[in-house]
Amino acid sequence: MGRAHILQRDQVDISEYCLKEEYIVEEVRRFEHAVLTARQQLRAIRDHIPPATAADIAAFIDTHLLMLEDSALTQEPARLITERRCNAEWAVKIQRDALVAVFEEMDDPYLRTRKDDVDHVVNRMQRILLNQGPMRHEVPDSRLRGYIVLADDLTPADTVLMQHHGIAAFATEHGGPTSHTAILARSLGIPSIVGLHQARRYVREEDLVIIDGISGVLLVDPDPETIRYYEGLQRQERVHFAELIKLKGAPAITGDGITICLEANIELPKDFESVLNVGALGVGLYRTEYLYMNRDRPPAEEEQFQVYSQALHALQGRPITIRTLDLGADKQVDSSTGRERRVLANQALGLRAVRLCLKEPGLFLPQLRAIIRASALGPLRLLIPMLSNLQELYQVLAIIAEIRAEFRSNAVPFDPDMPIGGMIEVPAAAMCADLFAKQLDFLSIGTNDLIQYTMAIDRVNDEVSYLYDPVHPAVLRLIRIIIQAARDHKKPVAMCGEMAGDPRYVRLLLGLGLRDFSVHPAVLLEVKKIVNNTRLAEVMSLSEQVLAASSSSEINDLLGRINAGLN
User: Domain boundary residue among 210, 241, 272?
Assistant: First the structure.
């Protein structure tokens, strides 16, 4: 709760003009000065972060600092200035558009929203080039303490500065749950709503507002009764989080004595500390795509081996499931010409994940070799994404067999019993889950894509997002088919999609037979609390009724009964 501050960014107005030959050297110098100044500003912001703050908070600023070291943003604009005689602002805009185009064509929502980081860094450079001064929240004072900030979007640097200045909460017009701003807000414990379109049309400077980040609600000028209600919720939240912390070292066991495996999803090496902090039993999904981003060439085998080795060391004996590359053949820009290559019309249905890897062995083989080598150093599992037919699986297994044969001949150590699993996230694979379960050591249910493909929607498209329904009867029946197939063949099955970490569905999934969950570290203790307060005997019959239900109202009513008693 607090007074509103409307963050109005000056629109960066970019002029585009050609330079005379004699001004090119000076223009390059002007560009290089902007890069240097941007680095200095970000380092100053990083220095504001208290020493006791978790390392992953500073890592968001470090990401932007690293981008300012990358040739894509430091050398390519200089080349454009020199060769095309364009002014610095225009050169930076050209390169920004080329980089953003790559990210926009990616299917993975986490990776797609990394275009925001490019925008944030470029916007800072453009403001410097245009001699625009610091904004109110960048001035180190306490004028924003207790305020709720409304903005188009916030950079990680903005968010860190605002937390340092004591803001109460924020809301943005744009962004999504996988944006760095949203992730950082969760890490910092700042109540927030992202993607709240048109909010600033209804809120004025200094209005009293309430932000409910759990429900995604922003209230303007609340009456006294509403204020008292939300003050009560604040007290409940403080008690709730104090209880969750006590669960860190406790096992996840249902009220009738069934042990549940709770693991964590991670993207970056810095996330391993969070895995340990919440007492996760291991990593159920390690997304490796970030290794391939912001670079001219894919990572070599040795670099990947070192990364995976460090991950095993950081986990201190806990198992890790490494998912092979899940990128698409996105719009690509030739770094030497700036020309775009051929683009697939619908990337979600195109050449991505295992399909791309099998077509591009130069991309796939170094990763498989690195993973297999790392398996000698600790409990490691390999996960193949987006399988849709057995032929793809046979091809991957044949490649793995060839690598193992080579390693045996050359006395390269590896674990011959390294478990190999498959992501079941395509309806075709779900319907044939029994066939995959025969060939694999474990299954992992990727609900994000499973729901998207089952409902025939783009899950990050606002126009059809209302159709994204984890409890649609078709989705629930596919999940049940997968769990039953794994059980029939005595193979472990986990769920690593967002549904697994949603408190609304944990008891339902337990009732459907799920015993392994892999979730974001931030929600793991919440899931553990639900597990410990659940008796399977009570939720199994209700879950069966949900499977048989045909209408949304009936399903929601049954979900309410399943979750009765949860805080």
Answer: 241
On whether the CB atoms of residues 513 and 482 are closer than 8 A, the answer is no
Residues 6+ apart with CB under 8 A from 444: 284, 285, 321, 383, 421, 422, 423, 424, 493, 494, 495, 496, 518
| pLDDT at 136 (0 to 100) | 54
- Burial per residue of 394-414, b for 16 or more beta-carbon CB atoms within 10 angstroms, e otherwise: eebeebbeebbeebeeeeeeb
CATH code, 290: 3.20.20.60
Which alpha helices (H) appear in 165-293, and where do they start and end?
Answer: 180-188, 224-245, 272-277
Give the pLDDT confidence score for residue 474 in this predicted structure. Answer: 95
Please tell me the predicted confidence (pLDDT) of residue 55.
55
Binned at pLDDT 50, 70 and 90, residue 16 comes out as: confident
Residues in Cβ contact with 351 at an 8 Å cutoff, skipping those fewer than 6 apart: 328, 329, 344, 359
Helix (H) or strand (E) holding 490: none
**Mean of the per-residue pLDDT values of the chain:** 86
CB 500 within 8 A of CB 523: no
Average pLDDT over residues 167-186: 76
Q: Is 180 a catalytic residue?
A: yes
In sequence order, the β-bridge partners of residue 382 are 322, 420
Q: Can you give the residue range of the structural domain that contains 60?
A: 2-241
Catalytic residue among 5, 137, 164, 180: 180
| Both tokens assigned to 460 | 């990050």
Q: pLDDT tens-digit profile of 507-558?
A: 999 999 999 999 988 889 999 999 999 999 999 999 999 999 988 889 999 9
